[in-house]
Specification:
Keywords: Protein transport, Transport. By secondary structure, the protein is mainly α. Helix content is about 70%, strand content about 0%.
């Protein structure tokens, strides 16, 4: 009976792969029977058959196992430690599918020490067993930040990095799954990755950035981006910069539609570092590459520009050098667009540039259309910190040269200051004081130019 049921599942799986819309409807009695077969009191042969049954079932139908999922997880985790036939692989495969279920299921897998069991399985000398276990761990890590943290506490990242450096890895049919799992573990950056492990990971990922497999190449680039986002005082960024050929390859991947998003994130994380690290990227020729990037990557692009604009005088000069691209037009379009996130990044870029530019470059920026962004950003009420920073930047401009007050008026900036005083209850008092000071200075400037306005009472 067991063999017949397994054969039926195999046939249904074949039809499903052929695109037929088939639904596996299984009775609770049948599921319960196989769950009993999973228990340790039965032979390895029976357990292996039951594991294969659930591995196949979970690919097609999750509803049949909802009521018994906790017991099923416990038994599968036990079976993943048993080195018998294909039992380990099938148990890891079943857990891989369960980890795609709602968050509560991943929590159950973790609570029943599933990560530790899969880690033991990941040490297996059989490539297929090991890589299935790593795939399952990757699914757990992808569920949520807390699951990702639980995975990071294991030693699986070290195991994956070791696999990357094995000669046979370049020929493995499971490369995609392993690198995908690695990116899920690294996602969001981490303060806990030791420097030696970071460098080993970068060395292992670099050759994959040249792989013919587009998906693999993209995931490997994301891996580099996440490593560059490790919160260890810029040490990981330095490792990216010092890994021979890596920065140049990241710039090259900006021309690849399959990797441009990941490459932009990696470069953005690097220029979010200190001025010296940013300069290395500028010297490598990033600015002309950015200017030619598609508009679909606008938010990431404006974020990078904002970080460069927060740099030194020479970096701001390079950013707005016409030979490197027309970033003024790009920021104006971004600042006037409908995407609030992009508009905010454009606002930060303008604020950073006006705050940090030399006097000469400040004159140039104010003579360009860059100030057109300001009223659009000042009308936003979602980020008081940005508004405070932008008003402060404008105050610095007028300290350098008061002649820009009429320019502010022509761009509608003075009107935005008045609106801050009228409607800006959510704005901090210092910013409101600055806005009021701008208006008063404008009145005084008008008095100096035209004399006080007087009225004669006519009887």
């Amino acid at each position: 009976e067991v063999v017949v049921l397994l054969h039926e599942l195999e046939v249904l799986a074949k039809f499903s792969m052929d695109g037929k819309d088939l639904k596996i409807c299984l009775s609770k009695t049948e599921v319960s029977t196989f769950l009993k077969m999973l228990s340790a009191e039965h032979s390895f042969i029976a357990q292996a058959c039951a594991v294969e049954y659930f591995r196949r079932l979970l690919v097609h139908d999750s509803s049949a196992t909802t009521e018994i999922v906790d017991n099923l997880i416990k038994e599968l985790i036990r079976c993943v430690r048993i080195n018998y036939g294909s039992m380990q692989r099938d148990a890891a495969w079943a857990i891989t599918n369960l980890a795609c279920w709602p968050h509560a299921v991943c929590e159950q897998i973790i609570a029943h020490n599933g990560i530790a069991a899969l880690m033991e399985c990941a040490q297996n000398t059989d490539d297929e067993v090991r890589e299935q276990a790593i795939w399952a761990i990757g699914n757990i890590a992808s569920d949520c930040p807390s699951c990702r943290l639980a995975v990071r506490r294991s030693n699986v990242l070290s195991t994956i990095i070791n696999i990357l450096h094995k000669p046979q890895f370049s020929h493995s049919k499971h490369k995609r799954n392993i690198i995908w799992a690695m990116t899920q573990i690294l996602r969001g950056g981490s303060p806990h990755i030791p420097p030696a492990q970071t460098q080993a990971a970068l060395n292992g990922l670099l050759p994959l950035l040249y792989d013919d497999d587009e998906k693999l190449r993209s995931d490997a680039t994301w891996g580099v981006a996440y490593l560059a986002n490790s919160f260890n005082e810029g040490e990981a960024i330095n490792m990216v910069l010092e890994t021979i050929g890596l920065l140049e390859r990241l710039l090259g991947l900006l021309d690849d539609p399959n990797t441009v998003d990941a490459a932009l994130r990696a470069i953005g994380n690097i220029v979010a570092g200190d001025d010296e690290q940013t300069q290395r990227v500028i010297d490598a020729g990033v600015l002309p590459k950015l200017e030619s990037t598609s508009a679909s990557q606008r938010k990431e692009l404006v974020w990078i520009v904002s970080n460069i604009a927060a740099g030194t005088h020479s970096q701001i000069d390079a950013l707005f050098d016409r030979n490197n691209g027309d970033f003024v037009t790009m920021l104006v379009e971004a600042g006037q667009g409908d995407d609030v996130g992009v508009r905010k990044e454009a606002g930060w870029a303008v604020a950073n540039a006006l705050t940090g530019a030399s006097v000469a470059k400040t004159h140039w920026l104010c003579a360009s259309n860059l100030l057109r962004v300001v009223p659009f950003v000042l009308r936003m009420d979602t980020d008081p910190t940005l508004i405070e920073r932008l008003v402060y930047a404008l105050e610095i401009v007028t300290r350098r040269c008061a002649i820009y007050l009429p320019v502010f008026t022509s761009y509608g900036i003075m009107e935005s200051f008045r609106n801050i005083l009228i409607d800006g209850d959510h704005i901090d008092p210092l910013t409101r004081q600055r806005a009021e000071r701008f208006i008063n200075e404008k009145i005084q400037e008008n008095d100096r130019r035209y004399g006080p306005v007087t009225y004669e009472f006519v009887r």
